[in-house]
Amino acid sequence: DIKPILKIGGAKVLDVGCAQGAWLHSVDASYPNVHYFGVDIAADAIKNARKANNITLTVGNVLEGLPYPDNTFDYVHQRNVLALGIKKIQCVRVIRELIRVAKPGAWIELVECDSVGKNLGPIGTALGNPVTTAIKDRGFDLYSGTNLMEYVEAQGLRATNIDLKTVSIPLNWGEGTIGRTHALSTRTALLALEDLMHQVLRITREEYKKLVNDAYEEWAESKSFIS
What we know:
This protein starts with a helix and ends with a strand. By secondary structure, the protein is of the alpha/beta class. It has helices at about 5, 20-30, 45, 80-85, 90-100, 120-135, 150-155, 180-190, 195-200, 205-220, and strands at about 10-15, 35-40, 55-60, 75-80, 100-110, 170, 225. Helix 8 runs antiparallel to helix 10 and helix 9 crosses helix 10. Pfam families: Methyltransf_31 (PF13847). One of its GO terms (molecular function) is methyltransferase activity. This is Methyltransferase domain-containing protein. It comes from Physocladia obscura.
């Protein structure tokens, strides 16, 4: 569905929550005749991003309105922004803003995952349960992947031809590199919660880091996954 858009010379692509632009650079490698734009709230990420002539990165906050006019982009991409970056009551507003900057007939791709592991072993459960409780208590949606269709349908504007695909991604197991890459990313996210979670669990920072690393090893044995 997206390839014909990217093959059009001069098409405009936006990545919301672009960080340092890794996704944009990966698409640019296959489709160089496109104008790419990225926006992220993290000014340091934008400042340190790799430069490219056809990629423009901007500091901005989707909750405050994207810094682009209506009907600008042929393809709008957003990945793992709703899960832990946007509170549940704000999710519909974010999707409405993505639709605003998309041209009529444009393609909008949203990729979100539930923040709840499945088939967790005893260590993973000891870590996962308090983490998910802490996230929920702060107003974030633990099931942003499952609830994504609900948010899209509730935006009340001009989104049509909506398609949903659900997949399960292994944590540190399975064929190829996906399981290991996913596990490394999840471990990094859990370690980033150290300031909060060592207090919630009433353990030292070192004990929390060990718990995360032990869970990482256990995921392979328990065949844990996230959908």
